[in-house]
Amino acid sequence: MSVLSAYQVSKFFGNFPALRNLTFELEAGECIALLGRNGAGKTTLLQLMAGLTRPTDGKLEVARRVSLLGHGIGVYDELSARENLLFFASLSPNKIDVEAWLERVNLKEVANAPLREYSRGMRQRLALARTFMGEPELLLLDEPFTSLDDKATALLQTLLADALARKSTIVLSTHQIPEAMAMATRILFLERGKLGYYGPRPDEMLDDSTWIYRTYGANL
Amino acid sequence: MLHLSWVVFLKDVRMEFRGKEALNASLAFALVVLILFSFAFDPTSEQIREITGGLLWILFAFSGVLLVNRSFVREQSNDCLDILIVSKVPASSLLLGKTLANLVFILMIESVCLPVFSVLYNINLFQLPLWLLGTCMLASWAIAILGTVFAAMTVKLRLRELMLPVMLYPMIIPALAAAMYLTNLVAAGKVPEGDDLIWVRLLVGFDIIFTTLALGLIDTILVD
Amino acid sequence: MIDKLLFGVGLASGLYLVRNLYTMLVVLPDEAAQGMIYRIMFFHIPSWWTCFLCFLIAGSASAYSITKKNFRADSLAVAVTEVGLAFTFVGLATGMIWAKIIWGIWWTWDARLTWAFITALTYAAYLMMRNMIPDPSERMRVSGALNVFSFASVVICYKAIDWWRTQHPAAVMSFRTGGGNIDPAMEGMTYHNFFAFILLCTVMVVVRLRQEETRREIEGLRRLAYAG
Fold first, then answer.
1. Could you tell me the CA-to-CA distances from A111 to A18, A123, A132, C16 in Å, in that order?
2. Tens digits of per-residue pLDDT, B94-139?
3. pLDDT on residue C168
């Protein structure tokens, strides 16, 4: 049973077509790398999948709980790490062990300090905790590797691997292709709002990051 | 749904109490205006009695806008509003929780300004405490509910701080008028009765109508 | 075809107004108490009716546009609000002129004028808000909601201000009682002008509606052009 199904989904901003006639399905346990040039519609597609906006045409059905890690990290600067996680945990129907998660992202000792005093890396780790803690079945990540330090990157990769092991579905938009190719099972390539390629990750991508742009992109 | 409203309420109150920026600014503003009034009118004359309600509720409307403006701004800084929508928190819970928080903040400002006004202008506002409390609750709810809804509408605009008052003030005029009238009565120690009760009914009706509209429309406003 | 129809209706309303003016100025006698100036009432009263009708349509169109995601209804809402606002200003101006002639003062805080002022501000805020939102679908949602609030507000305001005025009687009489028993010809004149206004209003709304639709199309084409 599919986690998300899209049928002829289009998104117009006024008369401008950001996404056109996308049809695809996401299955459980898949890790989909969302690729495309800037302006191809990746963020718009993630927003549609997250439920932040509705398609102008077509049908989009999401059968699961969704968690989003967007450009803004989605935590409150005025509160402490513990308060942040407790708040977001109470929004979820699941029981979440906030203390265990604080431990896991290595923030337990400083959990009561306000976020203002955190370093950037610490805030990113908290954002990861917030994203992954509800064990959502569909994870949407918009360029998550961008400006993560090495510890945070390792943590992210562990969390992604765990999510996949739990048969969650991950959609990951990125420009840092080598990191993503290691765990991606499928690629969704957008070109000017249209579906350029959706299918299993081609082996060519492991060696050559731009292969898909050259093969399925409309122009260079 | 109510549980989630409570959770949102607690979070907003906690966030505001952490920094107290808006509360302090709003309170300072209110106290300064109270002093300004003493220059606009002769503070010792009986004339003040007739305009007590008017002065107080204009003051509370202005301070209220300062407080209400922040309701959705505090969700903006790290795109937290998006996260709330994605986690399927009903927009009405969000609205109710934030409105309650704003109501508490406005009532806090009022609870300081009313005694200060009584002292500065030598008018005992507390002769009928229950009536005063009732008026303040009803009228403050009117400011809070419309203010919070409009804060949701204007959160992404460039000129948010300007548009919110421009949109809000014409709409709360009936509620403010009712509050002014009732506050004047209470300040004079008269129990509202007979024709005066029309203003109480207006406040209650106003609150019911706009709360219903707000809860019904908040989903359209916040979520595409 | 629509153009010709529009032109026809516009011409009809223009001729109707001219005929009314003629009747007003030449045929009807001066009113007993007020003299010449009472004739401005034939513009003052129908403009209130027209503006209220406009705002009622605007509120309904907005409610429809947000529930059915219909852009046409949204364009109708803004067109009708703008025309309604214009009629509100006509009402305000005619009221003020009448007040100056009859009572020697430009403004009286009577119920109708106060309500009109508040209403004008409410819908001016709506139009300002619309200008600030570039995305059409967001604009439709947010300003549609605001229009529904605005309509509820003007209805409540009307009643509330009426009560406020009776509690604090104004120094002058409401013009309603100043009318007394109206000569049937004069009463008829009011309705004649009202119908003329409705025709005029329809023409203006349709013109504005088409302008709004064209504007949306141009916005879209512009975006498409920039997208390359």
1. 41, 11, 17, 77
2. 999 999 999 999 999 999 999 999 998 888 888 888 999 999 999 9
3. 54
pLDDT at position C171 over 80: no
Q: Do B198 and C150 touch (CB under 8 A)?
A: no
Question: Which partners does chain B have (≥3 C-beta pairs < 8 Å)?
Answer: A, C
Region A197-212: what's the mean pLDDT? 84
Nearest-CA distance B84 → chain A (Å): 8
pLDDT above 50 for C180: no
Is the ipTM reported for this complex over the cut 0.90? yes
Q: List the chains bordering chain A where 3 or more Cβ pairs fall under 8 Å.
A: B, C
C223 at A interface, C-beta within 8 A: yes
Q: Which residue has the tokens 């308060």?
A: A83
Q: Which domain holds residue B96?
A: 2-222
| Number of domains into which chain B is organized | 1
pLDDT at position B56 = 95
Cβ-based interface (< 8 Å): residues of C facing B: 66, 118-119, 121-122, 125, 128-129, 132-133, 137-138, 141-142, 144-146, 148-150, 152-153, 156-157, 159-161, 163-164, 167
pLDDT score for C226: 67
Chain B residues near residue A67 by CB distance under 8 angstroms: 86-87
- Residue B119 touches chain A, beta carbons under 8 Å: no
Distance CA B63, CA B55 (A): 12
Sign, Cα dihedral of C61, C63, C64, C69:
positive
pLDDT band at C32 (very low <50, low <70, confident <90, very high): low
How far is Cα B63 from Cα B40, in angstroms, rounded to an integer? 19
pLDDT surpassing 90 at residue C55: yes
Delimit the domains of chain C by residue range: 2-227
Q: Which residue is associated with the tokens 């009221």? A: C95
Question: Per residue in A2-38, pLDDT tens?
Answer: 889 999 998 887 667 889 889 999 988 899 999 988 8
Taking contacts as CB-CB distances below 8 angstroms, the residues of chain B near A92 are 87
Q: Which residues contact B17 (CB under 8 A, 6 or more apart)?
A: B23
The answer to whether the beta carbons of residues A35 and A51 sit under 8 Å apart is no
What tokens does C211 get?
């302008």
Residue in chain B closest to C122 (alpha carbons) equals B170
Least confident piece of the model among A51-55, B54-58, C145-149: A51-55
And the tokens for C224?
């498409």
- Can you spell out the DSSP letters for B86-114? HTT--HHHHHHHHHHHHHHHHHHHHHHHH
Q: By CA distance, what is C223's nearest residue in A?
A: A16
Sketch out chain A's domains with CATH numbers. Answer: 27-56+138-220 (3.40.50.300), 76-136 (no CATH)
What does each C-alpha distance from C27 to B115, C15, C44, C193 come to in angstroms? 66, 17, 19, 15
Inter-chain touch B171–C153, beta carbons under 8 Å: yes
Tens-place pLDDT, residues A136-157: 999 999 988 887 888 888 889 9
Nearest-CA distance A139 → chain B (Å) = 11
Show the beta-strand stretches assigned E in chain A. Answer: 4-13, 16-26, 31-36, 57-62, 66-69, 138-142, 169-173, 186-191, 194-200
